[in-house]
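Lab notebook, bench 4. The sequencing result for the construct came back, and we need a structural model before the next group meeting so we can plan mutations. Quick request posted to the team channel:

Model the 3D structure of this chain.
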Amino acid sequence: MRFFVALDLPEAVRQRFRELIARLKGQCPGARWVRPEGIHVTLKFIGNTDPENFDSICAALAAIRSEQPVGMEFRGCGFFPSERRPRVVWCGVEASANLAKLAGDIDEALVPLGIPRDSRKFLPHLTLARLEPEKLSPGEVQKLVRAARELEGRSLGSAPGTAFYLFESILKQAGAQYRKLQAFPFVKGSA
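Done. Here's the predicted structure in token form:
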């Protein structure tokens, strides 16, 4: 099984991303756009894991707590690794400081189970599309970059987070599908 841990989005925010993706898709139809129902804020990618580890992973995640909910505002669009060599289209996440701590706590809690720490600094974002520039016309990429620049600094919604989820990622020909396996309320006093 292929697992990851993430925060989910409320439906009102998800609807705004449906509209945004529809608009951006018109600029670059050759990109592989994510399905809006699958958009999430990844906290930890676990990867392929033996299904026998499921209970141990859940026990480790269930122990994680925070004093307050995570506050998130979704703002603007950008590209990984850069605008000049775009491979991923993302929406930025401006979050309360406890989001990075939450991701770090999840990372540390899974180390004793043989799941390695993340080597990269936690950078919260929402993946909107994946690009293979060699399969796209330069005009498509330029249109997409211009459209993303127009969104710079623009708020695309906000949401509090009080629970994270263990997801299974099922790889299919049409792209990955995600299935929620378990919810983990992390705010002290919430259930």
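Strands lie at 2-7, 32-33, 41-48, 70-81, 86-95, 125-130, 155-161, 163-170, 177-185.
Will bring this to the meeting.
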